[in-house]
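BUG: 3D viewer hangs when loading the predicted structure for this chain

Environment: internal workstation, default settings.
Expected: structure renders.
Actual: progress bar stalls at 90%.

Input used:
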Amino acid sequence: MMRLLLVRHGETDWNRARRFQGQTDTELNQTGREQAAVIAQHLAKEPLSRVISSPLKRAWQTAEHIAQPHQLAVEQEPALIELYLGSWQGRTYEEIEAECPQVHAAEIPPHGGETVVDVATRLRPWLTQLIAESTTNETVAVVAHGVIVQVCLCLGNGVNVQDYRQFVVENVSVTELII
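Structure tokens produced before the viewer hung:
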């Protein structure tokens, strides 16, 4: 049995402004840093063997807080980078909805962006390898982004990745996936 603790990064100014970040490399704001410290304290009791993070600063900064009490180095994993949002990156939810109201219902990818199927194609081999390399009763913290956590949950539970929105993932939420 392997336990994956899927953690979404702390808050950024763009989260607060409801601005699409995608792969834009934003940092945690003051609230996000406080959230990361609290979640690190909460996870300090967990028997973590590894902390793996997206290379984007907001996830990396959250992961560093989590790794510190365990005296672990954070491992960078490019497969965990957030969904690429193409022309939507940097724009607000309101701007996108005003321009293209049917976009969310129809799952239309942004111009030049990825789909959740693209993300699943990127994540599946990494997740398969992580599981194959795990030891019995290992607990691993994976710090990433909302869509990445949602897609991991789909893959881990045999759910169609296009149904990823059924999983609600808030900033610094921890979702346990037992494999």
